[in-house]
Amino acid sequence: MTETLDITVTKTKKSRLEETDFNNLIFGHTFADHMFVADYADGEWKNFQIVPYGEIGLSPAISALHYGQAFFEGLKAYKHADGKVSVFRPDKNAKRFNKSAARLCMPQLPEEIFVQSIATLVDLDQAWVPAKANHSLYIRPFMFATDPYLGVNPSHTYKYMVLIGPVGPYFSKTLRVKIETHFTRAAEGGMGYAKAAGNYGGAMLPGRKAAEEGFDQLIWTDAKEHLYVEEMGAANAMFLLDGKLITASTRDTILEGVTRDTVITLAKEWGIPVEERRVSVAEIIEGAKSGKLTDAFGAGTAATIASVGSISYQGEEYFLSDPKEREFSQKLLKTLDGIRYGNIPDTHGWNYIVHE
Ligand code: PLP
Ligand code: COI
Q1: 170 CA distance to ligand 1 centroid (A)?
Q2: What is the 3-state secondary structure (H, E, C) of 288-342?
Q3: 116-142, pLDDT tens digit by residue?
């Protein structure tokens, strides 16, 4: 860190920690005692504050609400057995944050502000980081436009905020997924590579329809022909086909996942050939039929490594092997957990220690 950020801290008068049930956490429902807030005006970031978590007053005319000038990030903090707290690869999220900002005509946030806001907030609320297997503190940085003005133009003022809250596993079971051949998440020239709020709102109807059909997730395909696999819900889709790790190459329509990069790095180190390219639905279905598709999962911060149990396509359901028997994703989960919870050496420098 080059400079220390001047953050005004106002602590809560009454912590909610005691009344929080850490054994029954539902993703996104529980928030820690504090949150971070900063304002952008007159071409600069200012008013760096940590305040008690709670409601904020806003004009009903802000363009974030009307035109979707809003985006977010997602990352996690982990508690080690010795009490240390680390955040996983925040520098990667800081870079992606600014890619999203650029796509939505929103201001860049210096990487030091991103990392330091998170580090200071998580350190203050470190008692909220669960010390339990498969549990962590979810970190949600986000930015939105605040000009009280209905013109369809980029706002001049913005807020950057960070919310944090303890979470358990996002998916509690092996996933039954469907290959989506009608709806689209992102198109070439669109903003699929950004974590724009609107991408997620647009995915809700297809997600709900898939759930009504009994599926846990859907696999997005390309907008033009629906012949190529893109992503899996809010995670990158990864497959072990014929001994090779294959996943969609990053482009306009694909979010460049931090977990995706982590998995690719580990796979290469383990000597597994990795192919980042266009992945056709046909080869995945063929692999599922022939047994050459030995592993399939969604990789993401919330999802972690979410195993796919079956893939449905055009009314046919193809079943994969029992996830417990899958060598690759089991090793991945073990290694990722080991690094994140500080049980195996972090040789890549992925853990950013916020509390010693
Ligand atoms: N793809 C989408 C659309 C997502 O929302 C996410 C979740 O953040 C990912 C992929 C995985 O990215 P990461 O591993 O950085 O969480
Ligand atoms: C994340 O993994 O952080 C995500 O963004 C998924 C989220 C939309 C629940």
Answers
A1: 13
A2: HHHCCEEEEEEEECCCEEEEEEEEEECCEEEECCCHHHCHHHHHHHHHHHHHHCC
A3: 999 999 999 999 999 999 999 999 999
